[in-house]
Amino acid sequence: MPFPGAKVIAMVEFETMKAEEVKFGKNNFIEVAHKKAVGEALSKEFIAISRGFYLPDGTKKWKSSITLPDEEDKRKRIAELISSF
Q1: 2-16, 32-46, 69-83: which has the minimum mean pLDDT?
Q2: Which of 70, 73, 23 is nearest to 48 (CA)?
Q3: Is the pLDDT of residue 43 over 90?
Q4: For FRET with 66, which of 15, 17, 58, 77 sits at 20 to 30 Å CA-CA?
Q5: b/e string for 59-74 if b means 16 or more Cβ within 10 A?
Q6: What is the spatial distance between Cα 30 and Cα 62, in angstroms, rounded to a whole number?
Q7: Over residues 6-25, mean pLDDT
Q8: Residue 47 — left, alpha, or beta (φ > 0 → left; ψ -120 to 50 → alpha)?
Q9: Is pLDDT at 2 greater than 60 in this prediction?
């Protein structure tokens, strides 16, 4: 049993079901990925949009990320908002 006030962290694994990149600038990219979080009592799909860059050896390094719900109506509304700017 953990100490009072201690947080119990469940093990969650992330599966990438599909991912595509949009390259921009000299060595930057934005990755849009359909992912699934899988744990003992969890299985949730979501869309991750991540910004990153390539290191000199070609490996990827991520700077930031945002997670969007995997609900079609929400994704459509977000896409409409982005397209309107």
Answers
A1: 2-16
A2: 70
A3: no
A4: 58
A5: eeeeeeeeeeeeeeee
A6: 9
A7: 88
A8: beta
A9: no
Say whether pLDDT at 5 is over 60.
Answer: yes
Distance from C-alpha of 26 to C-alpha of 28, rounded to nearest angstrom: 6
DSSP state string for 2-64? PPTTPPP---EEEEEEEEEEEEETTTEEEEEEEEEEEETTEEEEEEEEEEEEE-TTS-EEEEE
Residue 72: its H or E element: helix 72-84
Asked if residue 70 has pLDDT above 90, the reply is no
Q: What percent of the chain has pLDDT over 90?
A: 74
| Beta bridge mates, 63 | none
